[in-house]
Amino acid sequence: MKRKIVFIIMGLVLFLLLGSAKPIFLNDPNIIIINQIKIEILGNSTVGKYKCDCPHTFQDTIFLNSTTKNSLKSEISTANFDCGNRIMNKDLKTTIKVTKFPKSTVTITNIKPSGTDYKCSLNFKITDKILSYPNLALKNTKDFLEGTVNVKFTDIGLEPPTKMGGVIKVKNEFVIHFILYKS
Q: Is-contact 146 113, C-beta < 8 A?
């Protein structure tokens, strides 16, 4: 009976020791664990700069130098974009036709090291258009990967918003900034 109790206690101690250890693969340079995606839309208007963002909880693992899983794909609710105030939120959601196109899709594939950073292929579906960037640079930091693309409203079949009879105009060009937060 005492022997059985000793084995149980040893088993519990071993479980606690191994259960609190970090998995070995977390230090593998060929594995990147993503726990959040944030998309920012940055642009200018006749009254100044604007920034709208959409943090999106998302968990996935990228296996570099592998044919197993070297991609990320996520649907993002376009209604979750926040520009900092109600009027701008409404204007953005009207412009990108949130009621007709409630979801955008981000697909990142073919992720490869490029020096200390990475290169990838990015497809971003917004409204009914797909923007493709076959050689997007992803800057690598300790906490995240990030990339930017320059877009025009007219590239996605949309008109830049105007207010007050055209006195306030949003410029046609804007930037989409993608941030992939690491675990």
A: no
